[in-house]
Predict the 3D structure of the following.
Amino acid sequence: MKMKKVDLETWPRRQAYHFFKDFEDPYFSMTADTDVTVLRSFCKSQNVPFSLAVLYASTTVANGIREFRLRQDGDDVVEYDVVNASQTLLNEDETFSFSFIEYATDFREFEKNGLESVRKYKEMKTLNVELERMDVIFYSVIPWVSFTSFKNAQRRDHTSTVPRIVFGKTHEREGRVLMPVSVEVNHMMMDGLHVGRFFQRFQDLVDSLPATIGTVV
């Protein structure tokens, strides 16, 4: 959980940060379809969990964009070296619980972490999972709806600058398989430019990931 303090005096976004700091609702979100045709087909043929492949791609992209690793910590802004994944799990009784998945640059290691996390937290069935950590991205999955927008529940606490990413139900259009993705962030930490950059890089990695996974023995 390594981090460093951001120098607010030299930070290029300092003016925007102070502008949005006192907003009652400083959050904004974008929702767009991602083409997952190639990745979903690959995952089915190679018995790779599609949900973990998507989660890996998203967390990898988020780690590559500095703004997705920035958090407010009291009166400071800090930058984490690495952020991990905290994802909801659906329980058999139709309640949900949280899980924590440690990030790994190698997909097979991330997949192992993810499978172990699902097993562990399915048994624990709790919402009390790493609640004090800010070096995470909050993830949810809504596999029943191909939504066109999404609004997360928000708390005004130490997690208020943690990005929220939601994956929706895949659907077909003109022979392609599309998946809606919602990215909700705090405007104190980033702008539309950075969220747009996330979507662009996410699509690129989703397209190229099968070749990368395929080279891993």
